[in-house]
Structures are given as structure tokens and as C-alpha cells.
Amino acid sequence: MAPTRRLTGFQATGHLHLGNLLGALRPLIAAQGAAQSIALIADLHAMTIEHNPADVRASALEQATVLLAAGVDPERTPIVLQSQVREHTELHYLLECVAGFGEAARMIQFKEKSAAGGQVRLSLLTYPVLMSADILLHDVTQVPVGEDQRQHLELTRTLAHRFNTRYGTTFTVPEGVQPESAARIMDLAEPTAKMSKSAGAGRIGLLDPPEVVRRTVARAVTDEFGVVRRDPQRQPGVTNLINLLAECTGREPADPGSYGALKREVTDAIEALLAPLRARHAELAEDPGYVRGVLAESAERVRPTAAATVRRARAAIGLLD
Ligand code: TRP
User: Could you identify which of 101, 170, 220, 237 might form a hypothetical disulfide with 191, taking C-beta atoms 3.0 to 4.6 angstroms apart as the criterion?
Assistant: First the structure.
């Protein structure tokens, strides 16, 4: 059997948060011994909506630094900055030639984001085709994806299969895998919505200082039932806090009757995870040259596979070499 090869992607927009750590980063780090993984920072995807150039640059570097600080070992897991491996954009174009306009326009995320108003960038429409290129380029067998990216992964599989059928076997058709983490981490201020990079009040950034973490948890939405139990329908806030505690520590709350005690436990649990990450990040941030070096080496490491995939795709679709 072919070895498991995995690609985990992070879009370089905003700051990585606790949901990213528990849902994507921690599983990636835990699997470093078993699977061959690639961590991808998608800076091109960050330009599909109105963007500030300095912010995208800063976000890309910060995310790479946070990945290292959290324990991604670049010797085993290359940290690839999407824009630095040009084959991503070359394969993107070739895949656009097997993707339909209607197919792209039907994507839920496109419909949601394009409804927000303002000019809709063409790159927002082709976003999932670029994501398909990210995945197919590296010949991976598995892609951990959350609920919101499931449809994009299905499109990736469709495009790979279509290309292979029309032009001859070129791509590995990847499987989507559910993140190992049992619970989705929700926003603390709005516990029916997933914690996201852009949302404000209820997200816990991985680099948030201790007092911000404490305040965010203290202000987390609860309810008037006064019972610490999981009831996602009626008590989404309290359920999210219990899940957070369980994800961080593997423990259940000590006191079933006190929201105050629950919040203190959650704060301590988050602090225990973030304190070492913050400290390591501060060290690494002193040496951006090292982080840039990791990105450059990682790009070199994945380039042979990427170049080979593009070579196969070019030949299959009808281009001269
Ligand atoms: N679209 C993904 C997100 O918003 C990020 C991403 C870009 C990605 N390329 C990818 C995820 C490839 C997995 C594989 O989360």
C-alpha cells in the first residue's frame, strides 16, 4: 500500500486561533511520526477578497512562526508557503480547463462570500480550483478538512477524477479525513458559530496575552440553567466550554454546578497550552531569517514532486514539453 501522505492547509488571513490548534495543528503534530505531512500556508488564497499587502505578508510569516512554535518539526513536515512554489498556480490554470463555471459558482462558500457586497474578485470564484491544485500537486492521499471545506474537497476529487478519465491517469485522488478532534470549537461569544480567524469577541488567538485569554473566557456566553452539562441545543455556550476543557486536558469539569469554576478551569487549561507556545514564538520571532529559511528549504523539498505532477499534467492535457 502507498504510504499515507497528508496535506493540512491554513489560509494566511488573520491570526491562527485555538480552533486551528485543536482541530488541525495538534493532529498534524501528533501524526508527524506516522504519516508524511505537508503544512501549507495559503497566501494566494488570502488575496481572493480585498486585502492589505502588508497584512498578507505579516500573516504568512506569523503563521509559519506559530506552526514552528506549536511543534511542527520542519525536518519531518515541510512548511510550504503556497506562493513560493510556482507550480501551484501553473496547475491551477490546467485545472481551470476541466472545471465548469457553474460548478464553481455553486460552491456554498463562494455564494456566501460573494453576497457580502463590493466587487467580487474572479479569484474568489476560482478559489476551490486553486485549493484543488494545492492538494493534487503534492500527490497526497489524505486531506484533513473541517465541515466548511468539505465541498471544496469533493470538487477536488471530482476534478482529479475527470482529468484522469479524459486525459489519462495523472493525479492521486485524495480522501478527506475528519479531524481527529471530537468536537468543533465554537466562538465563545457566539457559540453556534465556528471559531474563525476573522470573528472578534469570542475567538482566542494563539498569541493572545494571558489577560486577553482570561477576559475572553470570562465573557463567554453561558445561559440561565446553572448546570454544567453538554446540551448543544439548549446550552451551546456551556457545551462549548466543556468541550474546550476536554480537548485541552482530556478532563471533564470538576464542579457540575458552577459556571465560574468552569470558566476558571477552562482559562487554566488554555493557559497551560498557550504559555509554552507563546514563549517559543517570542524566541522565533527574534529570528525571522530562520523562519524564512525553513520556508525556502521546505519549498525545495516539495518541488521535485510538484514539478513531476505538473509535467505529467502538461503532457496529458496537450502541451509540448
Ligand atoms: N481553504 C482552506 C481554508 O480556508 C485553506 C486551504 C488552502 C487548504 N489550500 C488548501 C486546506 C489545501 C486544505 C488543503 O481553511
Answer: 237
